[in-house]
């Protein structure tokens, strides 16, 4: 957890790409939304850490999205957390939260209209809307419903100055998840 805390200490005060919150505020708000929804600790940990790929050192990134973070941050983050003992559930929720956006855009035109400007811009780098075949395959993921819920929290977690528990609170939950995994 020290390494994760350091990542947030080093990059958490950076702006959350085109949104009115920092990386840390976004992570804390997403975790709070998961907790308020009654999610289990693995899901809360995934919500808190879903964008950790953006905080990893630049040499691990496969490129950047014109000022909107690391390309494939979701895969980078999921792999990083797998290596640190997090469960496959946590990894899957993180690894596919971008696919959830691609899926929802493909399935619901009204969803696209609700995306923030930054989210529309990153969608271009992330492959655009899913094809019919990609969507059908995505629906078979055993964590499909949880991934879609994660996406909802991700989109809502952009409120400036929203009171949340602190980072230590969610790092302790993350530690419990690893210990129980």
Automatic annotation (TrEMBL):
Name of this protein: HD domain-containing protein
CDD domains: HDc (cd00077)
Stored InterPro entries: HD/PDEase_dom, HD_domain, HDIG_dom, OP_Dioxygenase, Phosphonate_degrad-assoc
HD domain ranges (all copies): 23-118
Pfam families the record matches: HD
Lineage: Bacteria, Pseudomonadati, Bacteroidota, Cytophagia, Cytophagales
SUPFAM superfamilies named among the record's database cross-references: HD-domain/PDEase-like (SSF109604)
Coiled coil spans: none
């Amino acid at each position: 957890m020290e390494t994760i805390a350091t990542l947030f200490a080093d990059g958490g005060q950076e702006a959350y790409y085109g949104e009115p919150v920092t990386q840390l505020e976004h992570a804390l708000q997403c975790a709070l939304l998961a907790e308020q929804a009654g999610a289990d600790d693995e899901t809360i940990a995934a919500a808190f850490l879903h964008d950790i790929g953006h905080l990893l050192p630049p040499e691990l990134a496969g490129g950047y999205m014109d000022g909107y973070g690391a390309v494939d941050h979701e895969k980078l983050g999921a792999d990083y957390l797998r290596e640190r003992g997090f469960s496959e559930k946590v990894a899957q929720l993180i690894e596919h939260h971008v696919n959830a956006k691609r899926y929802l855009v493909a399935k619901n035109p009204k969803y696209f209209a609700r995306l923030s400007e930054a989210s529309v811009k990153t969608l271009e780098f992330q492959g655009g809307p899913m094809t019919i075949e990609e969507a059908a395959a995505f629906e078979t993921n055993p964590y499909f419903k949880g991934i879609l819920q994660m996406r909802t929290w991700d989109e809502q977690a952009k409120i400036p100055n929203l009171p949340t528990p602190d980072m230590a609170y969610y790092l302790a939950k993350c530690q419990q998840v690893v210990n129980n995994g």
